[in-house]
Design goal:
The complex is a heterodimer of chains A (110) and B (113).
Chain A (H helix, E strand, L loop, with lengths): L3 E2 L5 E4 L4 E7 L6 E7 L6 E6 L3 E5 L2 E6 L4 E6 L8 E8 L5 E3 L3 E6 L1
Parallel strand pairs in A: 2-11
Antiparallel strand pairs in A: 1-3, 3-8, 4-5, 4-9, 6-7, 7-8, 9-10, 9-11
Chain B lengths: L4 E3 L2 E4 L5 E6 L6 E7 L6 E7 L2 E5 L6 E5 L5 E5 L8 E8 L8 E2 L3 E5 L1
Parallel strand pairs in B: 2-11
Antiparallel strand pairs in B: 1-3, 3-8, 4-5, 4-9, 5-6, 7-8, 9-10, 9-11
Classes of the chains: A mainly beta (110), B mainly beta (113).
Chain lengths: 110, 113
Amino acid sequence: QKEVEQNSGPLSVPEGAIASLNCTYSDRGSQSFFWYRQYSGKSPELIMSIYSNGDKEDGRFTAQLNKASQYVSLLIRDSQPSDSATYLCAVKDYGQNFVFGPGTRLSVLP
Amino acid sequence: DAGVTQSPTHLIKTRGQQVTLRCSPKSGHDTVSWYQQALGQGPQFIFQYYEEEERQRGNFPDRFSGHQFPNYSSELNVNALLLGDSALYLCASSLGTPDNEQFFGPGTRLTVL
């Protein structure tokens, strides 16, 4: 059974701070890793994808991947109240199905 | 460029009934995946369609079936509805390549009474 784990939160950070979201996965054959943001009552929105070890930056977002530790993270710099949402980690192997974690609820306090 | 669309937005059914949900993929995408998302949980993979065939299937019973049409749009059918089938049903489209990214539609909220 392939598993993706995340802390459910809520993770509360003050406005302007760095939010750090973590995800671990069980399948060493996993090849592609994704972070989605989901606002309450809405569908998931793709934020970042990462495929190789190291960091990948896009604006205020940085995804970090460590395949040896089976760990992927998302950093949000200069957090804004509009970043308050549930963040879903998704992992894909050589097959075509994605396995999602349960999500971490982030609350950015003004 | 139209994104992924789904219909209907909301649906209320009673136990034992059957339901059909519809999805049109993002322009240029050929692969459609369906997910079930219960409240407070991450999406659970139901199945994926590519070239009009079911390519992968998650751990869902045969009551869940689907179809993909030549224009890549897709349907999800659920028979003999149970109360536990109440959830947000998400369709995601992608290109059928190894490093594909999936983009989600707005979802269909199904309530089974």
